[in-house]
Amino acid sequence: MAEMESRGLAESVSPGGAARSGPQPADREGLLKQSREFLDFFWDIAKPEQETRLGATEKLLEYLRARPQGSEMKYALKRLITGLGVGRETARPCYSLALAQLLQSFEDIPLCGVLQQIQEKHDLQKVKKAMMRPALFANLFGVLALFQSGRLVKDSEALMKSIKLLQTLAQHYNHLQEQPQKALVDILSEVPEATLQAILPKVLKADLNSVLGSPEHLELFLLAQQKVPEKLKELMGPVNLFSDENIPRLVSVLKTAASSVKKERKLPAVALDLLRLSLQEGRFARFWKEVVEQGLLKKQFWPASYLCFRLLGAALPLLSKEQLALVMQGDLIRHFGEHTVTAKLPNQFKFAPEMNEYVGAFLEGCRDDPERQLAVVVAFTCITNQGLPVLPTFWRVVRSLNPCALKGYVAWLRNMFLRPDLDSLVDFSTSNQKKAQDASLHGPERAVFRLRKWVILRLVSIVDALHAEKEDDVIEDVARFCFFHSFFETKKPTSQIPETEQQFSFPLESRTREVVGSAFFSLLQTISTQFRQVPEQTQNGQPWTHRLVQFADLLLNHSRNVTALTPFSTQQRQAWDRMLQTLKELEACSPEAKAKASAFQHLLFLVGIYLFKSPAESSDLLGDIQTCIKKSLAEKTRRTRSKAATPQEPPWVDVLVEILLALLAQPSHLMRQVARSVFSHVCAHLTPRALQLILDVLNPDKSPDEDSVVVTDESEKQLDSGEDESSGSEDERRSAGEEDSDEEDSAEEDRDGDVDQGFREQLMAVLQAGKALGAADGEDDDEELGDEAMMALDQSLASLFAEQKLRIQARQDEKNKLRKEKVLRRDFQIRVLDLVEVRVTKQPENPLVLELLEPLLDIIRRSMRTSSSKQEQDLLHKTARIFTHLCRSRQCCHDVGRGVGSLYAQVGRLVQQASHQADTSVSLYHFNAALYLLRVLKGGAAASVCQPQKKEKAGPKPKGPEATGCLDLSLVTPIYSSALTSFLTRRNSPLTIPMFLSLFSRHPVLCKSLLPVVIQHVTGQARPRHQAQACMLLQKTLPTRELRVCFEDPEWEQLVSQVLAQVVENLRTLGEAQTKSEQQKELSSLGLLNTLFRTVHQEKLTVDLTAVLAVLQSQQQKLPQGDRAAGSSRLCDLYWQAMKALGVQRPKAEKKDTKQVPSVTQSPVSTKRKKKGFLPETKKRKKRKSEGAAPEEESKPAASGGDQPPSKRRRNKRKAQGPAQAQATPATKRPAPDATSTSPGTPATTPKLQKKKRRLSQVHGATPVSPAAPAGKKQPQKDLPEKGVSGKTPQSALPRKKARLSLVSRSPNLLQSGAKRKQASLKKARKP
């Protein structure tokens, strides 16, 4: 495409192309000046991204609207027409769409002219064979562009030409297949009837065989039958498509249509048109039975089956109630159910989501017809696999039901639960189920159980979906129905309780009641009160749980008509009556205590309902809850009367916490939410003992009796088993297989490693006894045992191994029991963490929060060691989240009372634990906990202590303890001093630099006290790694503004001098690093030195830097030079950054370090080794020929060079070599320029003057001179000849050439003189 576009652009802008096409020179000149943006539109139109294409098309249209008469319009048409035939298939529709929008926007462009340009550009008669396919598609997409513009049906001339072109394209079936015919049908479907009557004889043959030959011809026939039936009858006569001889041909055509849309996965229009025609002619039943069910379904062809499914979904809005009953009871719906059940693999196509869309659209479209809605929903529910409906229990389309249809559907589900009508179901069995010969899988009892389980879960899911819409009647009916059949049964029907009038056709099994009970508590979770929001209440203002409690009381009072499955004892019934009385008292409480009363009310409701599930446990809980409620409501009055008499919190909170822990032990998400909500209302009254009860659960060492409150989670498992039982059985078999494999593995381990010595001795005894039996029969030991002896020995061995197997199984059962107990214990701890989270969130300023730090750290430390399972990871993540929220909370405790001393001890304990952890992450948690306690102590733990100090000392700047709030530095400093010393001395310390940086930034006065420890470890006997860490700490800490405020100016200057002296000691070994830690030490020392220099310059401190400069200059030669500097670039950068701060500039580094001419005394061997490979060997050989004559010629100028004045060429040579020698002399040839710039004895307090002198010396082309030497005297250069060349040897030619090349690169005007100079030297060398 790029070649074609560039070629088209060249034709448009080239002079020859302009002459051929005929534009004016002005247009051609304007086209040449077009912006790149305009040309980029056409590239963006062909991109695969839809947004890019649409945006480029819109921008192109806006661009052309601004210039409707310019050359851009012609170029755009030509470019789009050319793009219709590009090689990339994905770009053709893009250009076609852009051309359609262009023609739609500019209606003055004639369609016939555009069509003619398309045919001329992509002429089918002149195009080559290789380009036939792009040309065919170009013509097709051109016609489609004309049609999509919306103007083709209005232009009769262009319409006829387009139809004629499509008929021509239809002959090339190998390339285009049925696309031209489809385009023709689409165009004719939009034309007026008069135009269609005129065109119909030209496009449709009057032959039924032709009509039934392809889906396109049949679709054209159906289009004519729909729009112009009289003209069609005049053309073909009366036609009966649904006759006996035409039905097989219709089936064949529909199968072909199904194959054509296999990839698109859509319904062919011809199938829907045939359905409409059958409805119009009253032959729908014949069409559905013979064409769909007896024809397409019998083909055993999945695309044909999917066509039937789509036809069913599309036909739902068109059918009456009787016709819906016909299609929903036949073979097609059974085939759909079988496909839904068997299509379970991930790579299999599943039609169920598409059918849900069809059903949802149908229900949305006929909200005013509840009968048809109910008929469709019931029909799909009746598709069952051995009694279990194939649809999921949660079906979103139910939300679209009309209220009348919804009530009817709920009534139908209840009736199906009570009296299952298996004959009305469209039941089927899969091929695998048919192969199974087990009679229990085909009995009615199993089908009834599967159906009832699905129905009760569907009822609960309906309430979940409709809870937001306040369908009170439906919610109450379902809730009463589930509650009644979970815990009660009918003795005698009564009209006061409608549930007693419902009779069962099949008796209700106990396992079904368990499923109903689990579903009821799931329903209770949905309709229960949410404390964080406005309670979800009924229309009369009562919570749903209250209405359920009233219904339960009604059932209990009608003991003659109903009876509970688990009858109440006298004590339990009294607990129930007291609960009702307490509820009345809570309703009459004061408005101030309304929130707390509602929490207790909700708790009573739920525990009262749980009384029917577990009466013994719930009755005790009810009594305790009522006691707590009475004491909590009377607490305020008692406190106001005698506040001093009750200094401690009332004990009812402890009892309530125990109750909440017992509720959390139950595997119910509802109870978990209720306990969390109730605790949020009472956490402000929490006592230390109640908090300790929670912490005992989290700490397994202090809760040995914890297992007694943990129960199994059978109810949730039964509720989850409400899905497809077949898939559930497969999962059970898989999990059972995994458990069996685990058991086998563990059994093998037991057999291999746990065989005790007692079993070995017993086995040897049995074998010896068997041999003794053989000897008793008079046989020799060498002979085999007799039959009786062998039988006795086998029996003894069998009994022995059976006993051993039982012992192994007992050990395995014990391990499984311990593992399950551990899982339940971890789950219980995760639930109990909800209470801790509520406490941290609601009361972060309460002093009891401080008691949570160490227990949370224990959980984190323990879980980090054993976080292998997902449950352990969940416990760890939740604990870490709570701990992080506590430490980062904006509010913290400000009133610790007399516990300040214990807090300091706790800080020391936490810091010590952080220093001895094996994992750095765990150490970070301990360190952050200590920082949190420092924040508490600093914030106001002892305000009474701080205020007198402030009154006594009213100075301008606080010092000592005042600057740190209420922190006692005498207690805190030793703690962190020891931790810092441990960090800077231990080999593998878990502490890190960011920990101490966080401490220093939050408490700068404490940092001031700890700085001597850090400075002490910069040098001395510490390891190089620890010295590097000390330098990094100082480098990050000294620039902080908070620390600077804590120092007076003399103190700060003294501190900087002290740190500088320590760093200078480290730098005396600069460049001698042999290990990685030593290298890191050097880098850190230089980084700290640069930080100190910045501090000195910014604050203008009077610090003597002479010693620093001397040390740095003395260590310059030890720095890596040449090729060795590649790995030490950072070190060199930091070194020269420090030297720059002292006024010494870094020499400019050249690409090669061979610019300086070597000395006369340098051996050629060493020069050759250094410059190896710089010149080719051929050049070296050529220069060796002139070695004999070179010394004679060069000796004369060298001898007379001192007396004669230098020539002009020689002066130029010296001027060129001066800067090069001053800046690029290697360290091995002469002293470094920086080393000679300042003598060690000269004070370095004036770096500006030194820097100025250096700049002047560099400007004059001389090397830097020392202050002690005369200013006008240059460095001695006696060893070098005047020309800088030591002879005509090949070794001396190499540096000279490289230096000359470097000068030429810096000074282009020296290029010719250098070349001439080289030629002259070569001529002199060749003279005899």
Protein architecture, described:
The chain is mostly helical and 1328 residues long. The chain is 65% helix and 1% strand. The chain has 63 helices and 5 strands. It has a 3-stranded mixed β-sheet. Strands 4-5 form a two-stranded antiparallel ribbon. α17 (247-260) crosses α20 (302-315), α27 packs parallel to α29 (510-527) and α36 (669-682) packs parallel to α41 (787-842). The two termini are 71 Å apart.
In a nutshell, what does this entry contain?
The protein is mainly α and 1328 residues long. Helix 15 crosses helix 16, helix 20 (302-315) packs parallel to helix 23 (352-365) and helix 29 (510-527) crosses helix 38 (714-720).
| Whole-number mean pLDDT | 75
* Helix-strand category: mainly alpha
Our estimate of the beta-strand percent is under 5%
User: Helical stretch count?
Assistant: 63
Shape: extended
End-to-end separation in angstroms reads 71 Å
Q: Largest beta sheet, briefly?
A: 3 strands, mixed
The percentage helix is: 55-70%
Radius of gyration, rounded? 49 Å
Q: Name the poorly predicted regions.
A: 1-32, 530-539, 637-650, 703-753, 772-780, 941-963, 1123-1127, 1153-1171, 1182-1209, 1213-1316
**Based on DSSP secondary structure assignment, what is the total number of beta strands?**
5
What oligomeric state do these chains adopt?
single chain
Strand neighbour order, sheet with most strands: 2-1-3
Features of the shown structure:
single chain, 1328 residues, two-stranded antiparallel ribbon, 65% helix, 1% strand
Topology record:
Layout: H1 2-13, H2 15-21, H3 25-32, H4 36-45, H5 50-66, H6 71-83, H7 92-105, H8 111-121, H9 132-148, H10 156-169, H11 173-176, H12 179-188, H13 193-203, H14 208-211, H15 215-227, H16 229-236, H17 247-260, H18 269-281, H19 284-296, H20 302-315, H21 321-327, H22 331-342, H23 352-365, H24 370-381, E1 383-385, E2 388-389, H25 403-418, E3 426-428, H26 431-435, H27 444-466, H28 472-487, E4 488-490, H29 510-527, H30 544-557, E5 562-564, H31 570-587, H32 594-610, H33 615-633, H34 635-641, H35 652-664, H36 669-682, H37 688-698, H38 714-720, H39 725-753, H40 757-776, H41 787-842, H42 853-865, H43 870-888, H44 900-915, H45 920-940, H46 943-952, H47 969-983, H48 993-1002, H49 1004-1016, H50 1024-1037, H51 1041-1045, H52 1049-1067, H53 1076-1099, H54 1106-1114, H55 1129-1141, H56 1164-1170, H57 1177-1184, H58 1190-1199, H59 1208-1224, H60 1233-1237, H61 1247-1259, H62 1290-1306, H63 1311-1326
Parallel strand pairs: 1-3
Antiparallel strand pairs: 1-2, 4-5
